Amino acid sequence: MTVLDQILKKVERRIRELDTEDLAPSPHAGSRSLEKAVTSTDGVSIIAEIKPSSPSAGRLGPSDPESVAERAASYEKGGACAVSVLTEPEFFDGSPELVRVVKETVDLPVLRKDFIVHRVQIEESAHYEADAILLIAEVVEEDAPELVDTAHEHGLEVLLEFHDPSNIRYVVEANPDLVGVNSRDLRTLDVNVDRIPELAEKVGKELPGTPVVGESGVTGPEDVKALRDVVDAVLVGTHLMKAEDPERAVRELVKAGSGRG
Fold first, then answer.
1. Most-buried pick from 141, 196, 233, 256 (CB within 10 A)?
2. How many CB atoms within 10 Å of residue 206?
3. Partners of 48 in the beta sheet?
4. 34-46 pLDDT per residue, tens
5. What is the pLDDT of residue 259?
6. Residue ranges covered by each domain of the chain
7. Other beta carbons less than 10 A from residue 118's beta carbon
8. Cβ atoms 142, 11 nearer than 8 A
9. How many other CB atoms are there within 10 angstroms of residue 182's CB atom?
10. What is the model's pLDDT at position 261?
């Protein structure tokens, strides 16, 4: 069983245990546009991620609300266009509640990044004030259009990512607000940043005009520079979580993406 299979098994259990009666949508959900934030500047925008842990990198940082709020504020000061919050609890030490913590700390769009497969998780995202959610084509497959529609019903935008070129068909059918091209194979955890241009080119042909976000494997300014003419934004987690000075680390990436680095 792969790590992804293990994660999805836990996800299904949490969905069954989720108390839907307490998931009233927040009026603040979807109040900030990730799509606009990504496309509002020239060059490559930076979506900075809060990821306390991961199966590939191990422990990366604290997950208590105070520490998460402090890190989110540093990301904003550094010039990030949005903050992504990893909320999966058992493999990434995240929590849906951290979405609200970040939303109340910064004035940026907040992306909930998790393994979303069911409508109730979208309702949960709206409850905790997310502006956008991540969907993974390799996971949701033909359910992508329905889940995108459900997110839109709740006022949320969708970043729909894919890794396997053949799975772009699910992305095209769903027509999301943004498309993520992930250089990481979630089943093996292998990363190949060189795949991003190839995948981004496919998106440009199939969904022209849709913002493209490069995901996984960005380890510094040079990687961002290499993607200036390839994607609209990059989502960076591990590199920023390991940085001693997150604000400075974001600022360096922003500078590289703007063409001034």
1. 233
2. 13
3. 83, 236
4. 999 999 988 999 9
5. 65
6. 3-18+28-258
7. 18
8. no
9. 24
10. 44
| pTM of the entire predicted model | 0.95
Instruction: Describe the crossing of helices 65-78 and 246-258 by its angle, rounded to 10 degrees.
Output: 30
What 8-state DSSP symbol labels residue 158?
A: E
Sole residue written with tokens 């490559």: 44
Nearest residue to 33 via CA among 178, 190, 247: 178
Cβ pair 200, 207 in contact under 8 A: no
- Element containing residue 80 per DSSP (H, E): none
Q: Which residues of 44-75 are buried (b: 16+ CB within 10 A; e: fewer)?
A: bbbbbbbbbbbeeeeebbebebeebbebbbbb
Task: Write out the two tokens for 102.
Answer: 């970040």
Tell me: the pLDDT tens digits for 56-84?
A: 889 999 999 999 999 999 999 999 999 99
- Alpha carbons within 13 angstroms on the beta-carbon side of residue 5 total 4
Its CATH class, for the domain covering 3-18+28-258, is alpha beta
The closest alpha carbon to 174, from 219, 213, 134, belongs to 134
CA end-to-end span of the chain? 43
Q: Is the dihedral of CA 245, 251, 256, 260 positive or negative?
A: negative
Q: Do residues 94 and 85 lie in contact, with contact meaning Cβ atoms separated by under 8 Å? A: yes
- Cα Rg, the chain, nearest whole Å: 17
